[in-house]
## 1
Amino acid sequence: MNAPSAPIREAVILAGGQATRLRPYTDTRPKAMVEVADRPIIDYQLEWLAGHGVEHVVVSCGYKADVLREHLSARTEGPEVTLLVEDEPLGRGGALRFAATGLRDSGAPYFALNGDVLTWFPLDAFTAFHREKGAMASLALAQYQTSWGIVEVDEGGTIEGFTQSPMLPFWINAGVYIFEAAATELLPVKGDHESTTFPRLAEEKRLAGYRIDGFWRGVDTVKDVKEAGEQIPELFARKG
C-alpha cells in the first residue's frame, strides 16, 4: 500500500494524434516531437516531471511512433520511459487508460499530461491540493487568455481603449491531471474522458480543479509554436 503522503513517482503522456492544425510541422513527426525554441515538447515535459521526482513515464503514441521511439531511446537523462503504441486511435480517454497499463505500480496515483502542453508549476503543491480535496481525479486549470483584442467602451458608445489578448475570468482544462488508481477503470476503453469520465466525477463531487500559478501554453497551431518559441527563452532568462 502507498502512504497517503508518498510522492507521485509515475506519469503518463499522451503523444498520439496527427495534429493536422500543426502542419507542416507534423508531416514528419508526432505533435510531442514538434520543436519549440529548438527542443521537442516532450523533452520539456520529461525534464519538468523529473524535476518533481517522477521516475518512470509511460508515453502512449500512434502516429509516427518510430520518430518518437528513436528520440526517446537516445535520451540519457530524466525519468525512465516506456513507449506504448496504439494499434488504432483510442481517443484521449482510451489512450489514458491504455497508457496506464504500462505503469509499474497499478495501485498508486499518477500524473497524466497531454502531449501538446508546455507548463511549469509546482507539482508537489498540486499533489497536496489533490490529497486535501480527497479527489478521485484532479485537473490543473489555466486562466483563459483570449487571442482577440478587447474593446473598452462606455455605456454611451465612446471607445476608451483597447487591450490585446487579455486574461479573462474563466478557467480551462490545462491538460495536466492527477488520477487515483481507481480512476483508471472509470476511463473509457475508447473515447474522450472529458465527455464521459469527468462529467460523472463532477456530478459525484469527486473531481477537483487546481488553479495554476505559473506558465502554461497549449501548442495546437503553427501560431502557438511561434509564440511559445518567443515566450520560453524569456521565461528561462527571468529564472536565471
Note: The chain has a mean pLDDT of 87.
## 2
Amino acid sequence: MSATASADTLSSAETSERSVLLLWMIFTGLSVFAVVVLWRYGLLHLMVVSDRTYISSVIAVLYILTCGHCFWRSRAIAREGEITRRCRAILSASGEPRGLDDMRALPGGLVPDHIRNLVMKAQAQPAGRIDQTLLLRSLADRLRGSNGFGAFVSDTLMKLGLLGTIIGFIIMLAPIATLDAADKAAMKSSMGLMSDGMAVAMYTTLAGLIGSILVKIQYYMLDAATQRVFSDAVMLTETHVTPTLERRHDG
C-alpha cells in the first residue's frame, strides 16, 4: 500500500514537471498555427510591406528570440523539478535520510546544493533550530534565474509598438503643413502618405500588443512552474532535512 502510494506520488510529480515543457510546446504550437493562418491569408506579408519603419519586423524577431529563451528556462526548471523528485526519493528511502550521510548520493542541482548548504550550516552552528530563511531566499533567486528577462522583453515590445504609433502619426500628419487644397495632385499624394502613416501606426501597435501579451503568457507559465519547484524544495527540506539535522545536532 505504502509502495503504491509512493509510486503514485513520484509519478504525479514527474508528470507535473514534464507539463512545464508540454504547456510551452502546446502554446508555441498554437502560436505557430496562428502565424501560418495569417501568412496563408497574406496578412503578415501586408504588415511587413506596409510598415516602412520595419519596427513590426523587429518586434517579430525579438519575440522569436524570447521564445527560445523561454524554452531554455523551461527545460532548466523541468530539470530542477526532476532533481527535486529524485532527492525526495533518496532522502525518504526506507524512512532513513541516507543522503545526508553521504552527500554524493544526491544528484547535482540547485536544490541538492541548498541541502548541502543546510548540512554545512548545521555543522557550523551551535545546537538549536536551523533557520533556512536566508538560504531559501538565495535558492529562490537562483531558481528564478533570468526569468525577469520576460518582463523586460514584454515591456520593450509594448514600447516599440508605441514608438511605431508615434512615428506613424508623424508620417501621417507631416503632409498637412504643406497641403494645398487647390492642388489635386498634391492632395492625392498627401492622402497616400497619410494612409502609409496610419498603416505604420496601426501595424506596429498591433504587433507590439500581441507580442507583449504572448510573452507575458509564456513567462507566467514559467514563473508558476518555478514557484512549484521552490515549494517542493521547501517541503522537502522542512519535512526531511532540517528535522533530522536538528535531532542529530541536539542529540
Note: Confidence is low (pLDDT under 50) at residues 1-13.
## 3
Amino acid sequence: MVSEPKPALPHPLPGAVGLSHLSAYDWEAADGVCGGSPHLHLVCTEAYVVTGGRGAVQTLSPDGYRDIPLAAGSVAWFTPGTVHRMVQGGDLRITVLMQNSGLPEAGDAVFTFPPEVLADPERYAAAAALPPGTGPETAAAARRRRDLAVEGYLALRESLVAGDDGPYREFQRAAARLVRDKVPTWRALWQAGALATAERTGAQLDALAVGEPAYLGEATAHEAAPTRLGGFGMCGRRDEYALPGTTLPYQAE
C-alpha cells in the first residue's frame, strides 16, 4: 500500500539553494549577440547546469573577460562580483542553482546599466522594473532592460580587455551602494535559510555522536512543481518555484 504524501511544509532544498529553469533569450543585442541581461550578484554564487542546446556565458572578473562554452551536460559557476551574460547559441536550456536561496529574489542582483543610471537609485529602479505578467508589454520591457544592461556591459568589457579594470571596479562599488539598505533583509533571510540549514547539520552530528538520532523520526519526502512558467528573468524565460522558506515567489526586480 502506498501512503498519501504528507502536506507540503516549508523545507529547504539541499543546502538551502534556489532553483529555477531558464531558456536563454533569443533577442539580438547591439553587438549582434543573442542572450540575456548582464548583471552580478553581491553575495551569491550561481551555477548553470546545462540540460540542452548550446551557447555560452560571458564573464567579467578580476581575471579578465572569458567566454565559457555551454553544452548539454556542462556546468559553469561564478562567484559574487562576477558579471555574467548568458548567450544563446541554439535552444540553450539551463537549470540554475543559486546559493542563499531567497536573496536574489530580495534584490541580490545588479544590472550593468550605464554609470549615470547606476548613480541614481530611482532611475535604476525604474529601468530594472518590469510590468507584471508574461505578455507582450512585459516582454518589451524586459528587452529594453536587457539592451540597457548590454550597453553598460560592452563599455566595461572594452575597458577590461584593454587592460583598464577601473570602470569594472567602479561598477562593483556602485552595485554595492545600490544594495546597501537591503542588507538587513538579506541577513534575516540568510539566517533563516542557509545558516539555519548548516546549524541543523551540526545538531544532527551532535546527536549521532551521542547515539541519540531522534531527529530521524522526522524523516519525510517533499515534492514541488513550477508555479510560473515562462516568466521574464534576467537571462531568459524562467520557470520558477514558490517553495516557502526556500525559493521565494519571484518578484519583478
Note: The CA atoms of residues 23 and 173 lie 30 Å apart.
## 4
Amino acid sequence: MSGALSDGLSAVAHTVSEAVVPPPESTQQALGYPSLFLLVVLGSLVPVVPTGALVSGAAVVALHQSLPVFALLSVFGIASLAAFLGDIGLYWLGRRGVGSKNGSRWLSALRERAAPERLAQADARLREHGVAVLVVSRLIPAGRIPVMLACLLSRMRMREFARGDVLACLAWAAVYQLLGVAGGSLFPRPWEGIAAAVALTLLVSAAPSLWRRVRR
C-alpha cells in the first residue's frame, strides 16, 4: 500500500515537472536581469530581502541557458553593481543622519538591527583591519549592518567606504553565485536547481544565528 502511494506521488511529481515549461531565454533575460538588479538594490537598502538567495537562483537559471558562461558573467556583474549601489545609497543616507542633530530614520533603523555586542566587535575589527573588514562583513550573514554602522559612527569618508565596499560586493556576488551553481548542477531541471540553491543559501545564512543560539 505504501509502495503504491509512493509510486503515485512520484508519478504526480513527474507530471507536474514535465508540465513546467520555462519561458524563452530572451524573456528570461528581459525580465530577470532588471528584476535581479532592482531587488538586490532594494535588499541592500532595506535588509529584509534575501539577496543572496536571489543571486543563487539567478545563477541556476543562467547555468541552464544556451550560453551559460555569458549568462553567469551577466548575473555576476548585475548583482555586484546592484549591491554596491545599494550599499552606497544606504551609507549616504546614514551619513546624513550622523551629521544631523536630529538623526534620521535610516540611521535609527541601522542601530536597531545592530546588537550592541555585534557593534562593539565590528568597531574593534574596523580599528584593527580598516576597510578590509568590509569584505568579510559582506560574506558573514548579518555582518554587513554592524560594520556599516561602525563605519558611520567613526565618520569614515564615502570614498574610503566605497573603496572597501566594491571588493566586498564582488566577493559576495561570487560566493552566492557559486552556491547557486553548486545547487543547480545537481538537478537537470532549472526549477529543481533553484529550489536546491535557495535552500542551500538560506541554510548557510541561518547557520551562524543557529550556532549562537545553541551556544547560549
Note: Confidence is low (pLDDT under 50) at residues 1-21.
